[in-house]
Amino acid sequence: MSNPSVTRENRAGRAAVTALMFLLAIYFLLPVYFLIVAATKPQGDLAATNGLVFSHFDLIDNVRTLFTRSDGIFGRWAVNTVIYAVLGAAVGTLISALCGYALAKFRFRGREVLFSIILGGVLVPTTALALPLFLLFSATGIVNTYLAVFLPSIVSPFGVYLARIFANAAVPQELIESARLDGASEFRTFFSVAFRLMTPALVTVFLFQFVAIWNNFFLPMVMLQKETLFPITLGLYQWNGQTARAPLLQQSVITGSLVSIVPVIIVFILLQRFWRTGLAAGSLK
Known about the structure:
Distance between the termini: 36 Å
Radius of gyration: 24 Å
Low-confidence stretches: none
Number of strands: 0
Helix content: over 70%
Largest sheet: none
Strand content: under 5%
Structural class: mainly alpha
Number of helices: 13
Order of helices and strands: HHHHHHHHHHHHH
Mean pLDDT: 87
């Protein structure tokens, strides 16, 4: 028979947690709501109306203006961002998977020392690496090219850390030994056996990489001078700096910010089944 006092405490605890989650949801979603509302307004209504209340619905015109402004440069920024984020996240995930699998399944001298160094890399802020990378890339002549943003994006110490955890959790050593006995090479064993078992977890690594590269701002700002190479973040920053002398750019900056978060939301929705499984595997480990 249940204790009434315990039952009341459980209900009160659930109510308190629910209320807290509701408040946190409002806190995080309110800026998105403001962005949606502001993106639907004409330029004149941005300052003349309440920021949380819809007025004239001009979203279609705002989007059309966004993609036609400055000879359609925003479309080029969007393509650049897709190249940086998708290709960089895919290559970075593959490298993380290979490194994590090797650290999890191969025993060699200095393995734990190497893994400790990789973990140390997680603690280094990316902004601290921007200047050394700029000097290095300047010496090799790849500053102001796609490679200047792409190459640093494919290295993820945190991705290697997650991949090692997932490899330990998802890939039985017996399967690897069976593949070796059948004559499979190490690379064939990885891609035929380990990679498939790690796929849900690697989607999580891909999403972390994708979001980090998509939102990357400081590294492109340091490395790039050509406007045609800018990602969306840097392009909108440049436009925002010009709003003092060109006020009409303000609406394009707001609309561009809304457009820039749509692909991230779509990717999360499409891959949510995989990354939830990957996070669960990591937490169980």
